[in-house]
């Protein structure tokens, strides 16, 4: 049995708790290893290592930090195949996706922040007449906590830890207990790259125990969290009275607005992807599709035909487009929404059933579902399902499309398909979302601010925004005489 253990102070170590949790391979529906079920004592051990490492790391030169981050990026590339297999096995996603998106992006995160830190500058303001110059000293915060979800395991884990350490902090991090394997393997890479001991400590375990211990730790001064909105609320309730710096990247129910004047074939290709990539388990998936009435019938027919063609199967098979859902409880949750859709009067146009894959009969596979809904306020259209399920609905006017797009509690991303630049600008200004993609989807430039509004989160990651989050700005005002 494979054992996933903690990485603390530059060494792999068994949990002080001496407790273990089963780790499932969702493509087979079988336990394939155990994970350390760390407790408060393990988090304390990780905190102490991070505290010890902080003075030297925060005083290291930018060149030194940059060099280590770039080395980690290269070693992730060298280990691409091994990490991609581990990610696919742990999460159920197609190996081809892990190989082409997840792992390359994990490497890109380290490379990006290894370079970005060399360009990160602070502002200066001279007050002419008052003979003062103010400058902003940006200092690392200290020991920070990073908590990441299961859908893009190494991709999102590194998206947090890379800027945190680039900025000179030391870290206690927890990946999701559902998908711990690539973060576990990262430990080896950190040691090989020469990251000083204690700079990045990885603790495995459950959210309510290990995660909560990080959030509630009185000396961990900032928390960067990506996960569900409910968990985010809980974390905010713990961290806010302790006045911790908090970045929350939460759930989404993203609208995909399709206008008749779009490039239809490109839209169709990308909409299949934006609906069902990673089994629809990407916070940025466009799960509510609104289509201008003049092309609605055509779209419904073409889209459903394309979705029916998506091959559901073994994640290790290169022709598979839809792998397994991450866990049995998650699959059950998604199936319950299909039932709810029917109860609410929605029409399941395709999919929505469990699929038996030969040789992998116990795996958590679902046929991707397209549901036609008649009321945008119904629960399947309002609540985050986070699986291979999209709703479709027609609209008549731009105002109506915008109103429906904004009528949810979430505001993470949005997509608009149109060739009208004026409309693009009108909607971009009014839509309640942190990201607007126009005639594209999931096109990411790591320099841009990333995050959501409303119940999708607080704060921004990405580019210098992440380096700003992981530093404390201090105003220094110097008076001079002529
Ligand atoms: P969860 O909120 O369940 O978990 C996220 C992380 O938080 C996991 O590591 C989890 O640990 C941990 N956790 C759970 N409870 C606590 C707690 N009380 N204190 C501290 N940590 C805790 O989310 P999922 O893993 O289910 O991920 C799916 C969600 O993430 C979706 O809602 C999705 O929209 C959102 N998401 C948002 C993104 C964004 O950028 N806005 C990007 C990707 C996903 P464990 O798993 O071990 O319980």
The whole-angstrom Rg is 23 Å
For the biggest β-sheet, the strand order reads 15-18-19-14-13-21-22
How many beta strands in the DSSP annotation?
A: 25
- Residues in helices, as a percent range: 40-55%
Mean pLDDT: 98
Bound molecules: NADPH dihydro-nicotinamide-adenine-dinucleotide phosphate
Strand content: 15-25%
Write down the overall geometry. globular
Notable traits:
about 475 residues, alpha/beta, 7-stranded mixed beta sheet, 6-stranded mixed beta sheet, 25 strands, about 25% strand, globular, binds NADPH dihydro-nicotinamide-adenine-dinucleotide phosphate
What does this structure look like?
- With 482 residues, this protein is of the alpha/beta class.
- Helix content is 41%, strand content 24%.
- It has helices spanning 40-58, 62-78, 80-91, 95-119, 153-166, 181-193, 207-216, 229-239, 264-276, 293-309, 328-343, 379-382, 398-405, 421-430, 463-469, and strands at residues 2-4, 6-8, 11-13, 20-25, 30-36, 124-127, 132-140, 143-147, 170-174, 200-202, 222-226, 245-249, 255-258, 288-292, 347-350, 354-357, 360-366, 369-372, 389-395, 410-411, 413-417, 435-438, 453-454, 457-458, 471-479.
- The strands form seven sheets. The protein has a seven-stranded mixed β-sheet with strand order 15-18-19-14-13-21-22, with helices on both faces.
- A hairpin with a 4-residue loop joins β4 and β5 (30-36).
- The protein is globular.
- The N and C termini lie far apart (73 Å).
- It binds NADPH dihydro-nicotinamide-adenine-dinucleotide phosphate.
- NADPH dihydro-nicotinamide-adenine-dinucleotide phosphate is lined by residues 147-151, 156, 174, 176-178, 206-208, 211-212, 215, 226-228, 231, 234-235, 249-252, 283, 384, 386, 412, 452, 456-457.
